[in-house]
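Issue 218. Parser rejects a valid record. Input:
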Amino acid sequence: AAGSVLLCTAAVLLLLAAGGAIPPPEEAARMARFVLHNCDWGALATLSAQEGLRGRPFANIFSLSDGPPGPLGGSGVPYLYLTDMEISVQDLEINSDASLTVSLAQTPYCKKHRYDPQNPLCAHIIFCGSIVKVNDSEAGLAKKALFSRHPEMESWPKDHNWFFAKFNITNIWVLDYFGGLKIVTPEEYYSVKP
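Output the parser choked on:
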């Protein structure tokens, strides 16, 4: 009996380590919200505008946040803090289309379950859409979301002309179980609680 209590306690701790109970695979929209909210960074792919790479895919890592950490803190909107000096941002100025991948591999969840990052059970989400600067009314939300998770951002050089942006989601694919990708619409995504 003591062994099963220890196992049960360990299972609860594993779930809490990933930011709360992981949604079941049949709730793909909730899974997408859960994974994004528990990730601090993602791989953003743009179409390169750089000499020698023009038109080719170019993936880069960006810190992001959809809201302060903790349950119920996520808006579902991936916010970013960007500067025109960054190579991928220069790509986005030519073509704002992008894709963004976030994975539970960056949380303790997959390591503790011994899931390889490519294992579907180590859930990852692929968003397609575009990057847009946020308007003044949304800048406060973006700042709170980002600086609560990435406090170092506040001290980044002011002369780099940092600005808040968001990933405007048009398509969502969820890979969190065996059997292939699941498609979630932005409407489904924003209508569920993470």
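Fixed in the parser; the record now loads. The mean pLDDT is 91.
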